Amino acid sequence: MQAGLSTKNAPSPKVVLPFYAYGALAFIVAAIMMFFTDIDITTSFLTPKVLSIAHTLILGWVTMLIFGALYQLIPVVMEVKLYSEKLAMASFISLALGTPFMAYSFWANFIGDSPVMIIGGSLVIISVILFVINVVGSGRKTENKTIENRFIITSVVWLLLTVLLGISIILFPQILSHGSFIIHVHIGIIGWFMMLVVGVSSTLMPMFFIAHQLNKKYLERAYWAINGGLLLLVITMFFELGIYVRIIAAISILIGFIMFFRYNFSAYKKRLRHNLDVGMKLSVLAFTLFLVTLITGFLSALGDIIPVEFSNRINIIYGVSLIYGFLTALILGQMYKTLPFIVWLKLYQDKVGKFKTPLPADMHSEEAAQAHYFFFIAAFTLLIGGIWFQEPILIKASAFFMFITSLLYGYNTYKILGHKQQLKPLAMPKMHKKKPIVKS
Amino acid sequence: MAKIDQLNETEQEILEVIKTVPDPEVNVNIVDLGLIYEVSHDEANKIIKIVMTLSARGCPVGDTILQHVQTVVSNMFPGYYVDVELVWEPQWTPALITEDGRAALDGGF
User: Fold this and answer.
1) What is d(CA A389, CA A392) in angstroms, rounded to the nearest whole number?
2) Domain housing A139
3) Contact B94 A344 (CB under 8 A)
4) Contacts of A2 in chain B (CB under 8 A)
5) Which residue has the higher pLDDT, A238 or A283?
6) Is residue A432 pLDDT above 50, yes or no?
7) How many CB atoms lie within 10 A of CB B55?
8) For testing contact with chain B, the best of A432, A433, A435 (most B CBs within 10 A)
9) What's A37's domain CATH number?
10) pLDDT, tens digit, for every residue of B31-43?
11) Partner-chain contact A5 B72, CB within 8 Å
12) A-chain residues within 8 Å CB-CB of B17?
């Protein structure tokens, strides 16, 4: 009907809502798992429990929410219908089944060619392939060839490479060197998560802030600096080219993200909405935490220059600040900017103008949201402190606050999902009832 | 077609009705957000025409807002054909937000 409108392109809510429901549960489960891992996380990534929690969070929480949100947001950013709703549902089922298999397998230390791991890994890969087909298929249909869309398409290509390399490491550990694991982690972190976030947030943040006339040259530069740097990083890790090439790659990636920050910061400064709602407060917090990821990521690229007693902790903080800091805060916030609208449109799309309807912002408990904002900050601060000082009691305290955060967030997610239609009579301006229309 | 600063009495009334339509994201009415460009009222042919825009092309609630405008105006002016046209030119800019709109955005939530 009208060009450029995305409600008509939006997928059916039943495709998207299960991702939100599952993600909230996985976040709670991961928070509970944290209670049992106080020693491991201060020593290394490569312990069964840490790997299990990492994959529960990365697949069940972060990837689940990103898949769901992206199926909803593709019509917004690309102005096309989703390529296939059936593939989207299949990708949910596959990821929802594969994640517990993988998490259990890591927890029980069934790595290598254990059947549980192979089933879990295969299901996750199927899910990712279905997701990639959907995003690339939608991207081919769009006439909206913006830099933001290019970031999104490129990120899913890196995602595909990440999971293919991941499963290869599990199946053929004797063939692939340690360098493969590092490449798996980096293309997953930088190529998939960070690049996707750049693409999506560069579209949404200015929209939510109501900021206009931003300079997209920064995004263009960011694209080439991040991708060029990442490619160089992969090459140097694969061929073991040494520290200096790695530092050049790290500098290029860092410059790319600084460009992206500049773009978003100008959106923040030009914003017309000065009073930020809880969703945007959490999103701004997420970008602040992203600085921790950038700094520790850069330091970890310095490798041997940093004394080993620090480098191990820096590496852990790099990963933790990305998954449990930046991405978790961003999801906590962006849930409030997406899920209420999906449910609201489902329930009230045909009722507007006929009845007084609640607003999307009325569908959650504001007290719970404000509380988990502070609980989350406490949990994250204690976690980083616990890792840095290698203090199990701080990790336990962090696990407690993250558990409360996950419960409050889960409460709000299910409150929105379970929202029942509330219609009231419409109050219209009185003057029209008194006065007939005069001829113009 | 009357620009919204040159409306006659009836068109002004139509604009007041449209003021009951909020942008669901920011909870500020779309007239104060500067989204309404023109309003016209043709008594002879029983046609009301509204030309409006949205603040962002990808706005997920865009056509719900258009539908909202159409419904409230149709309800208040029964017997009229209400035509809501969406345009992207001239492009909306924050300069179009009224003083009331700015105040509501600043401290409204």
Assistant:
1) 9
2) 13-330
3) no
4) 62-63, 66, 86
5) A283
6) no
7) 23
8) A432
9) 1.20.210.10
10) 999 999 999 988 8
11) no
12) 428-429, 432
Residue A156 counted as domain residue: yes
Nearest to residue A312, comparing CAs of A294, A293, A326, A299?
A: A299
CB contact under 8 A, A76 and B55: no
* Cα separation, A238 vs A236, whole angstroms: 6
The answer to whether the CB atoms of A432 and B13 lie below 8 A apart is yes
Q: What is the pTM of this model?
A: 0.84
The CATH architecture of the domain made up of B2-90 is 2-Layer Sandwich (3.30)
- DSSP sequence for A258-298: HHHHHHHHHHHHT-S--S--HHHHHHHHHHHHHHHHHHHHH
Q: Looking at the complex, does the CB of residue A432 fall below 8 Å from at least one CB of chain B?
A: yes
Q: What is the pLDDT averaged over residues A356-367?
A: 89
User: Across the interface, do A4 and B62 touch by the CB < 8 Å criterion?
Assistant: yes
Residue of chain B nearest A357, judged by CA positions: B24
**CA separation (Å) from A108 to A50, A93, A100, A173?**
11, 23, 12, 18
Output the pLDDT for position A438. Answer: 46
Q: Mapping DSSP to helix (H, G, I), strand (E, B) and coil, where does residue B83 land? A: strand
pLDDT tens for B16-36 read 889 988 888 788 899 999 999
A429 touches B at CB < 8 Å: yes
**Section A299-304 average pLDDT:** 79
- Two structure tokens written together for A160: 């595909």
| Angstroms from B36 CA to nearest CA on chain A | 16
Number of folded domains that form chain A: 1
Q: Please check whether residue A4 lies inside any domain of the structure.
A: no
CA distance A159 to chain B (A): 25
- Helix, strand, or coil (residue A87): helix
Does A382 fall in a domain?
Answer: no
Q: B71 with B65: CB under 8 angstroms?
A: no
Please report the pLDDT score of residue A1 as a whole number.
33
Secondary structure class of A146 (helix, strand, coil): coil
Whether residue A388 is contained in a domain is answered as: no
Give chain B positions within 8 Å (CB) of A345: 60-61, 64
